[in-house]
Design a protein that fits this description.
By secondary structure, the chain is mainly alpha-helical. The protein has one domain: Myeloperoxidase, subunit C. 40% of the residues lie in helices and 5% in strands. The protein has 24 helices and eight strands. A two-stranded antiparallel ribbon has the order 1-4. A hairpin with a 6-residue loop joins strand 5 and strand 6. Helix 1 crosses helix 2 and helix 2 packs across helix 10. The two termini are 28 Å apart. About 3% of the residues have low confidence.
Length: 619
Amino acid sequence: MSRPSVFERALIGVYTRVNRRTPWHRLPFLFSLLNLIALRDQLRAENLIDTRTPGDGGRRPGVAPADATDLQRRFRTADGSYNDLSDPDMGMATTRFARNVALDKARPAEMPDLAAPNAREISQRLMRRDEFTPATSINLLAAAWIQFQTHDWFAHGREEDLTIDIPLPEGDTWFEDPMRIPQTKQDSTRVDGDRDLPPTYINSNSHWWDASSIYGSTEARREQVRSHVDGKLLLKDGHLPLDPTTGVALTGFSENWWVGLGMLHTLFTLEHNAICDALKKDHPHLTEDELFGTAQLVNSALLAKIHTVEWTPAIIAHPVMRVAMRANWWGLAEEKIHRRFGRISRSDIISGIPGSAHDHHGAPYQLTEEFASVYRLHPLLPEQLDVRSLDDNRLLDSMEFQEIILLNAQRVLEGPQEVQDLWYSFGTQHPGAVQLHNFPRWMQDITLPDGVRLDLAALDITRDRERGVPRYNEFRRQLHLKPATTFDELTDNPVWARELEEIYGDVEKVDLQVGMHAETPPKGFGFSDTAFRVFILMASRRLKSDRFLTDCYTEEYYTGTGLRWVADNDMRSVLLRHFPELEKALDGVPNAFVPWNVSGARASDSTPATATAAAGQSD
């Protein structure tokens, strides 16, 4: 843990008292902004909890920059090792998730408390979609984007033979009783020195923001996706080739595959290759490996920038958040000053995080179990996809979601629909609101390619309980929020309050997912203020801990061409580079993740059907 400065401690103290009466988002603009800074400082000081084996734990020793290999020093490795040369294993694939809550609060309950209340009953009575409720301020692309990003950040494995058994409620028609949910894969790296730790779990992906969803988290996968020509990635007639072992696209990470993921993976594979062309033109001395490694640095930084200054302000449409997220990247001095004069201060707040000095804030960099939990955003997912014509908004096809996921996705991506019509449809349709009674019905009975049949709503509830993520009230306490004393205090919806009371009885037993979906979010927010506390902490941490976004965010590593590419581009320019037909749909649109211009004509044609989006992560 880090120790705040005297000024930071004073700021934390002031706003701790203020927030007892007034939450940050109801304060005047400047005070809200200062409140967010205070919250972030407090979370950095108290909520970055290391779960690695005490001592060296068998980790590799550090290396001096002069002793590191060229690959280790200059480029991102496939598994994320050597990002921090002083601690090469930090943040690499196959290392543990950390925690944002105290370790004594991260221990899962034993049976029967682990199974109570019944997760299947909660799925059917509290989460199941009664009627589609749209999130009208954003588009389907925003929902697809977050799954694209979570696949870069984290993935848990699962056991093949060990299950958590959930007895069926009376009258339930699930195909087996009890419902069997595969356990999370056990951590095989634990040793005697870990006896005081709660259960720990392994991240299959690199923890870093390195676009591993495109490039892979193993050297073997990286080799498969590379063309080994001019540093480029493999494409076949503008599409990702098929992986013969899975039947879906050959890319870095292809689990939970669907059309939205396929579009984004293809887009940023095209972008990687365009970056390679620009680098080769301006720096013809670069080798093939150098072109690839530099293009990955540029592409992954561009993804981090888009998420920071575009996606987040779109889904958290609050004036303070727009300024705060842009400040994470450009600083409060803003983009124009940064472009003209560069960094004018060593302070992140003034001149942004990219190019600043890296800082782990007292704890080794790891993503956390709580981070994975708050990114379960399955209510964004739809029941069907409506494909409309870019030319005139005419409805071309309506497909049940089962028709566009897993092995079916490639048929749509390479099918009769023009790709620009798919992009237009994603840009003009709305995802679902993240709330109770809006969980997709089709996801409550889904069969994965390996034959495992799941209710993903019951799975989401069970995963938090299994992994020791605290229930809603204790989670709020751990994140310095006031717990709900009654069900009516938890939610503004009196019907939901009575439903919660009937199932849980005790407000302290409400699960994190259920509480976050029942909670009334701040104005303009697409998710709860409870989830937002983890975002405040981890959004800047993922930038600040990464040397390729801090100390090494320089021309020596990126080239001048690469740094300009990141500075000059956004989601809109990336789309238009590869699909210029979308220009009218995007003309004047301030952010590619909000609804685009509707083509053509009658107002009645401009309202999308109830089909919409997909995002989030189930693991």
